[in-house]
Amino acid sequence: MNFSGLIGNFGPLTITGLAQGAIIALFALGYTLVYGVLRLINFAHSEVFLLGTYACLILWGLFGLDQNSATPSGFVVLVYLLMGLVAAIIASGITALMVELVAYRPLRRRNAPPLAFLITAIGASLAISESVGVVTKRNVRGVPPLVVQKDLFVVGNMHVTNLQVLIIVLALASMFILDRFINQSRLGRGIRAVAQSPDSAALMGVNKGRVISLVFLLGGLMAGIAAVMYDLKIGVTRFDAGFLLGIEAFTAAVMGGIGNLRGALLGGLLLGVLQNYAAGLFGTEWLHAVAFVLLVLILLIRPTGLLGESLGRARA
Amino acid sequence: MRQVLARAIGGVAVLGLIAGATACNKPTTSGGGSTGGNSKCGYELAFFGALTGPSANLGINIEQGYELAIEQYNQKNGANCIAVKKFDTQGSEAVAPGVARNLVADKKVIGVLGPPFSGETAASGPIFEAASIPFVTPSATRVSLSANGWKTFHRAVGNDDSQGPAAAAYIKNVMKPSKAFVADDQSAYGAGLADIVKKTLGSTVVGTDKTEGEGRQTDFSGLVQKVVQSQATVFFYGGYYTNGGLIRKQLTSAGWKGTLVGGDGMKDPGLSKASGNAAAKGTVVTCPCSPPEAAGGTFVKDYKAKWNVDAGTYSDVAFDVANLFLQGIDQGNTAPDKMNTYLSTVTYKGIANTYKFTDKGELDPQYIKVWAFVFDATGNTKADQEIKKA
Fold it and tell me: Which residue range(s) make up the domain with A248?
């Protein structure tokens, strides 16, 4: 165990962990939203994210940008980033809706048991990921260097870069808007109503089918934002990019209390940071092992996750 | 009634699928039937390695060298004389054994070119050995592979015992850093290489780390942090090119100006694809091979003409190994056991090297060459120099 390494690098490990955690948190929202309303773990959410990572790259590719392009000037970068975000959000949103429509809705109509949903979820996930793998010949696809990392400010040995700030700010802003939307808008109220009691909500005139579509769409939008940030941070994507990150995001959702939006944020950031501390303390090879041991420990103490399980209940 | 109809349609669909699948499985080539009486013909040489998967590029290099050799042979001896048989392992030690069982079930195969990677070699070697089919790996460099007592195993390149010290010698004598960092991907290949480099460099190594295996990690910020913090100017990574490229990219983003050094597993344009050419530039990779562009004969030209790409790492060795097998067939070694005896005695001069195997199947030490290569601004590797034996 390398305590001096952890303490000496505490600042840098924290900030890189927060940036990674912010992406995980946005990704985790999709799991939490769907679970909150449907009590369903949408494993195909990792592919909703995956298609987002490709959508913005394909769009940038249309403008002739690849990993070897020069970095465009300031204003142009902003336009590209916005277009990339829109492309990823649209692709992820549509994928999420399609998954719901094709894989889940028919089962729901027939009152299939929960196990059937679980298996179609895994099936949809693998089918999409493998198809992307075949189409891309399982090669990596590089990301154009749109954001050149520069130190924004330095505290001790902690260098905070422009990209890290961009990721964290964008993630927090998206979370804030989503939180307001769920808690204050009319549609948000519908979501909370269905989460609390689908039948009563239906009796009160809430269109359950539409609420469910909306929930998938919202999760997809957030995954789209996460996808662009992932591309910028990691620099490549490939057919199984969603898999490990998906497990991490799902873990974050459970850690914070699945079904709870703020829990997903907390869980994501915590997981990102803890993984980095573990890497510093034990070596990078322990990154995943330690994170999941911690998950078990947290669940032993708080079985419903850090902030408890609720989309509608606690803060209805 | 609707349910009955649905079931009936479903049943027909399933039957259709099965029928379709069996149709696909029917052999499409008939071996060397067309060449009739020629006793050299009608046999198969198999390529066994990754054609898809995260590390497929290396497998494709090898497959293309092998296919070129067979094509040239068939031009002399009649079309379809020796059949090309490709077995895709995806480079995975989990997938390889099943594919190997399919291979040994094909009784026309008298020799195997492959497997390219050490892990899949360890996993599928016992199956080839049990079936007494000789196999020659053009690129698996894990030392322990020759210690299994396999009679059918041959290695056409030097192993990590030759590559590790050479990489360390290059770092020590050519790059001369005062601080170096060493990490690996915990694969048998990567860890083996990194351990030898660590041992040889001794106190120059100021930090070490390990990562997840190839393709299983994308965020290396913990590792990057340690490398930057260690102030090392040289970072040796024992691993493959996807991880290597991602690490190089993230190191560059973090402002690290040092040089990344790796083994032959990172000698692939896939590295610069993952990192971008600018970041990859200057990365040093060693290889127990000589530069393909320096291969003798018309190989470089022929390869380019057939595949429309330049010969890659081990393409030339694969070409040599295929020709080594073909010479064996020419000399009448048309059964696996005869072929194996031939391999254990022959001294064959190919375009890339001269090949002679020891009784353990290793390349005779006097023919082992290790070269250093450097990534240039176009994302390709250029030969730098042959590394002097320590």
Answer: 3-301
* Chain-chain contact of B209 with A138 (C-beta, under 8 angstroms): no
pLDDT at residue A5, as a whole number? 75
Confidence grade of residue B6 (pLDDT, cut at 50, 70, 90)? low
Total domains in chain A come to 1
Residue B52 has pLDDT above 90, yes or no: no
Please tell me if residue A208 touches chain B, with a CB cutoff of 8 Å.
no
Nearest chain A alpha carbon to B218: A234
Measured between beta carbons, the chain A residues lying within 8 angstroms of B215 are: 238, 240
In a domain, A311, yes or no: no
Q: ipTM for the complex?
A: 0.78
Structure tokens at B236: 């040796």
Residue A308 lies in a domain: no
Say what the pLDDT of residue B36 is: 43
**What does the alpha-carbon distance between residue A21 and residue A14 come to, in Å, rounded to a whole number?**
10
For chain A positions 36-65, those within 8 Å of chain B (CB to CB) are none
Whichever domain contains A181, its CATH number is 1.10.3470
Across A255-282, average pLDDT:
90
Domains of chain B: 35-157+292-357 (3.40.50.2300), 161-287+371-386 (3.40.50.2300)
Task: Search chain A and give the residue with CA nearest B281.
Answer: A68
Report whether pLDDT(A16) > 80: yes
> Mean pLDDT across the stretch B106-121?
93
Share of chain A above pLDDT 70, in %: 98
What pLDDT digit, counting tens, does each position of A212-231 carry?
A: 999 999 999 999 999 999 99
Q: What is the pLDDT of residues A178-215, one digit of tens each?
A: 999 999 999 999 999 999 888 899 999 999 999 999 99
Which has the higher per-residue pLDDT, A158 or B245? B245
- pTM over 0.95, yes/no: no
CB within 8 Å: B250 and A235: yes
Are residues A284 and B56, on separate chains, in Cβ contact within 8 Å?
A: no
How close B252 gets to chain A, by Cα (Å)? 9
Touching B: A residues 128-157, CB under 8 Å: 133, 137-140, 142, 145, 149, 151, 157
Chain A residues near residue B246 by CB distance under 8 angstroms? 234-236
Three-state secondary structure of chain A: CCHHHHHHCHHHHHHHHHHHHHHHHHHHHHHHHHHHHHCCCCCCHHHHHHHHHHHHHHHHHHCCCCCCCCCCCHHHHHHHHHHHHHHHHHHHHHHHHHHHHHHHHHHHHCCCCHHHHHHHHHHHHHHHHHHHHHHCCCCCEECCCCCCCCEEEEECCEEEEHHHHHHHHHHHHHHHHHHHHHHHCHHHHHHHHHHHCHHHHHHCCCCHHHHHHHHHHHHHHHHHHHHHHHHHHHCEECCCHHHHHHHHHHHHHHHHCCCCHHHHHHHHHHHHHHHHHHHHHHCHHHHHHHHHHHHHHHHHHCCCCCCCCCCCCCCC
How does pLDDT run across B320-336, given as a tens digit for each residue? 999 999 999 999 999 99
pLDDT of residue B32: 39
Structure tokens, A149? 């990392």
Chain A CB contacts of B270 under 8 Å are 139-140
